[in-house]
Amino acid sequence: MERADKLLAATGRWSRREVKELIRQGRVQADGCSVARPEEKLDPETVCLTVDGGVVDCSPYVYVMLHKPAGLLSATEDRDQPTVLDLLPEELRRRGLFPVGRLDKDTTGLLLLTDDGGLAHRLLSPKKHVDKVYLAEVEGRVDQDDVRALEAGMVLGDGLHCLPAGLEPLGNGSSCLVTLREGKYHQVKRMLAARGKPVILLHRLSMGPLTLDGELKPGKWRFLTRQERTELRGLGTTT
Questions:
Q1: Which of 13, 140, 185, 235 has its CA 20 to 30 A from that of 130?
Q2: pTM
Q3: In tens digits, what is the pLDDT along the chain, a chain of 239 residues?
C-alpha cells in the first residue's frame, strides 16, 4: 500500500505539492471515490486512479512497448544522435526508463522500455532461457547446413561462443526466423555473416511472452497491458 500523493508524484507528471493541491480540489479519485487526503493508502497494483477523469497508471514500475524504427540508438541519451527515449513524452523520460537489451541503429521492431531493473536482468540473462525472435532478410539463401550450425552453437572468428540458436528458413530462404537465448553484440548479424549470409534487414518480433503489437507503427509506443506485465514479471522467477 502506498500514499496517494506518493503514487501520483512518482509518475513524474506532477510534483508532490501539485498532487496535494489536486487532491484538495477534489480532482483525484480512487475506484470512483474522491481521495480525501494525500496520505490515504492505496494498492498501486489494483487501484483505478484518475485525475480529472483521466486514468493514471500508478504501477511501481513503468513498462512501455515501442516499435523501434531504423535510425535511432537504443540508449538513454547521446550527445550527437537521437535515441529511442526521444520518442517518449517528457513525463516518461523523467521516470528514468531504459531499453531492455539493445537493437542496432538500423534494426527495427520490439523494444521494451522500463525502469524495472530486476525484470530487465531476468529477460537478458542467458540462464533464464528467454527466447528473442528476429525476422532477418539475408543475401543468398539459408539452408539446412545453416540451421544445424546455429543449433549446435557457433564459435565466431573472434572467439565469441554463441549458445545454440534456432533458425527457420522462410519462403525461398532469403528470409528466416532466428531465435536467441542471449543478446551479444550484433549477434544475429555476426552468426549469419559467418555462414556467408550477410543480413540486409533485421526486425525483432518478440521477447519471451511479449510480442510486438501489430497495430503499432514504427516510432509509436504504448504501455503494456496488465496481462503482459503479469506474464513478464513471472518470467524466469522459478529457474
A1: 140
A2: 0.79
A3: 889 998 888 777 788 899 999 999 999 999 999 999 999 998 877 788 899 998 887 777 889 999 999 999 999 988 899 999 999 988 788 888 999 988 999 999 999 999 988 889 888 887 777 899 999 999 999 999 999 999 999 999 888 899 999 999 999 899 999 999 888 889 999 999 999 999 999 999 999 999 999 999 999 999 888 789 888 877 755 43
- Residue 104 appears among annotated catalytic residues: yes
Looking at the fold, whether 214 and 99 belong to one and the same domain comes out as: yes
Give all strands of the β-sheet with 49-51 in edge-to-edge order: 33-34, 28-30, 49-51, 54-56
Domain span at residue 86 reads: 63-125+209-233
Kindly list the distances between the CA atom of residue 157 and the CA atoms of 9, 142, 181, 183, 197, in Å, as whole numbers in the listed order.
51, 20, 20, 18, 15
Please tell me whether residues 51 and 73 are part of one structural domain. Answer: no
Catalytic entry in 5, 80, 86, 104: 104
Residue 238 covered by a domain:
no
Residue by residue, DSSP assigns 65-83 as EEEEPTT-BSSS--SSS-B
